[in-house]
Automatic annotation (TrEMBL):
This is SDR family oxidoreductase. Belongs to the short-chain dehydrogenases/reductases (SDR) family. GO terms for molecular function: oxidoreductase activity, acting on the CH-OH group of donors, NAD or NADP as acceptor; quinone binding. The keyword Oxidoreductase applies. SUPFAM superfamilies: NAD(P)-binding Rossmann-fold domains (SSF51735). GO terms for biological process: fatty acid biosynthetic process. Coiled coil: none annotated. InterPro entries: NAD(P)-bd_dom_sf, Sc_DH/Rdtase_CS, SDR_fam. CDD domains: SDR_c (cd05233). Keywords: Oxidoreductase.
Length: 262
């Protein structure tokens, strides 16, 4: 097979993406659909789910709170029924969590960040892995963050979950290797969009500086001096599920323009 063909995911892959109706998740869903995959997404945003289903591009969507184990079990069952099986799980759903000094973080905010960012990945893995074991092209992609390899002051709940996802990924790659299931993590950097705008605004407020100054501070830490896009992240997800990545597993791969520090 030609190298260029190896770079494309196999046509007809059955893909489940959490948090897939907006942002990075939606970009990944669209990329897989354009590559000929069958895609099912879930999202907590009912309006975004309705818009996804109305688009008519073959992506099926359902409302779910990924932090609830019952919702995770239901979505995996719905996706397997709708797609006729499961080849790929993209654990993408996550929230930014609170911004502030550790002594000022509300325990409920900590618990909510852990529940959405980390527990949800476990819930979906627990339910999806038995189905992935029946696939001949099984792959798991976990969305971590550059904050999963660097310390991140004032964002400790978020960073803690993203470091944990890397540990989960590396451990599962060993556990599931004999089942021919590949497990990798993507660590996006500063992704352009409304979410990072909110994060920068919150960080500026905590630090007592202007939003523009804080944005410049963020970009000064990136070797390429620019943000990445949701399509950059989606392209890496496609590659990791392609034949070209057949021997890539247990890796935490950054797509971040080389963030030097946070």
């Amino acid at each position: 097979m030609a190298i260029c063909e190896l770079l494309k995911p196999r046509a007809g892959l059955k893909v489940l993406i959490t948090g897939g109706a907006a942002g990075i998740g939606a970009a990944i869903a669209s990329a897989f659909a354009e590559a000929g995959s069958r895609v099912f997404v879930c999202d907590v945003d009912a309006e975004a789910v309705a818009e996804t289903n109305a688009r008519g591009n073959g992506i099926r969507a359902s409302v779910a709170d990924v932090a609830r184990v019952g919702d995770a079990d239901r979505i995996v069952a719905e996706s397997v029924d709708a797609l006729g099986g499961l080849d790929v799980l993209v654990n993408n759903a996550g929230i930014a969590g609170p911004t502030g000094r550790i002594e000022d973080v509300d325990p409920r905010q900590w618990d909510g960040t852990v529940a959405t960012n980390l527990n949800s990945q476990f819930y979906f893995l627990r339910s999806a892995v038995p189905h992935l074991k029946r696939s001949d092209s099984a792959s798991i992609v976990a969305l971590s963050s550059v904050a999963g390899r660097l310390g991140y002051a004032f964002r400790t709940p978020y960073a803690s979950t993203k470091w944990a996802i890397v540990g989960l990924t590396k451990s599962l790659a060993i556990e599931l290797g004999s089942d021919d299931i590949r497990v990798n993590a993507i660590l996006p950097g500063i992704v352009a969009g409304p979410r990072i705008d909110r994060v920068i605004e919150a960080r500026a407020q905590v630090s007592g500086t202007s939003v523009e100054a804080m944005k410049d501070t963020y970009l000064s830490k990136v070797s390429l001096r620019r943000m990445v896009t949701v399509d950059d992240v989606a392209a890496l997800a496609l590659f990791l599920c392609s034949p070209a990545a057949a021997n890539i597993t247990g890796q935490a791969i950054s797509v971040d323009g080389n963030v030097e520090y946070l």
